[in-house]
Amino acid sequence: MRARDLAVDFPTVTLDTPMMEAARLLADQDLPGLIVVDDGGLPRTVLPGTQVLRLAVPRYCQDDPALARVVDEAHADVFVRSLAGRTVRECLPEDPRELPVTDPDATVLEIASLMARTRSPLVAVVGDGRLCGAVTLQALLDRVLAS
């Protein structure tokens, strides 16, 4: 099985997409992450859903989880509002990591290796100079475990 066989159409966002819109897309479609594309429609990076949470959760709660417990429930339920007014561009890490992109001929093991190495729940599939789709961790595991 090759990447072309596992790839599905996948929503994308741009650098100028509002973060709240990106977070809603993640939630509404139960996505593991988002592919951020450049002006030419090619992948620039993958924004995992966990990175969106990392950007929304106050740093002090990440550094000391006990502090998250002292925040009252009303305020704890709205922490994601901190993303309002910010774009995807503003929320990307400063140090770019390896881009989880592969070609349509990549094997399941190549895709799994790329996911593991980049800690990405999805891999963009690019062929003939265009985004062909994405392989998600779920689709990959479904295929591997069915064998």
TrEMBL record:
Pfam families, A to Z: CBS
Family annotation (SUPFAM superfamilies): CBS-domain pair
CBS domain sequence ranges: 94-147
Tree of life domain: Bacteria
Alphabetized UniProt keyword annotations: CBS domain
InterPro entries: CBS_dom (IPR000644), CBS_dom_sf (IPR046342)
Name of the protein: CBS domain-containing protein
Organism field: Microtetraspora malaysiensis
